[in-house]
Amino acid sequence: MNNRYSNSCRRSDCEITDVGPQPFVINIEAAAKQNSNYRTALWTGKHLQATLMSIPVGGDIGLEIHPDTDQFLRIEQGNGTIRMGTGKENLSFQTCVSSGCAIFIPAGIWHNLVNTGNIPLKLYTIYAPPHHPRGTVHKTKADALAAEHQEQKIKSNQSTK
């Protein structure tokens, strides 16, 4: 069998970098557990993006909404609570999640995932279309918030020109 694509990683010690949009195979469970960054873009294509996340004990993603992006999350390690709803003050859906749980978040739904366990919450998330710039790495949530603020400033400046 001729494998013309060398971008594959099935071991748990692979370097995690965004290799999209090239074809790619990875043990995503091992990669999610290995990731210690708050967010690491794993693969970014034209219509889809996969990121790895590690949420510290007591931490959360932060209440957010993606108006034009559907999102899928899969918990690989730890315990948490997901809250979702149609408004910031109307998070009518809430449930506990743990390893193996899949979470589907439609575009336009407010949501927050909180780590309620005693170990980092390890997960991967898939966005369609991509939500973060290719190659994104945020070591902490504070880094992610600062980057998002900077992206909003740039977009705001571009729209006023």
Automatic annotation (TrEMBL):
InterPro entries: Cupin_2, Flavonoid_dioxygenase-like, RmlC-like_jellyroll, RmlC_Cupin_sf
Residues of the Cupin type-2 domain: 52-127
Superkingdom assignment: Bacteria
Protein name as annotated: Cupin domain-containing protein
Organism, as annotated: Faecalispora sporosphaeroides
Native organism taxonomy: Bacteria, Bacillati, Bacillota, Clostridia, Eubacteriales
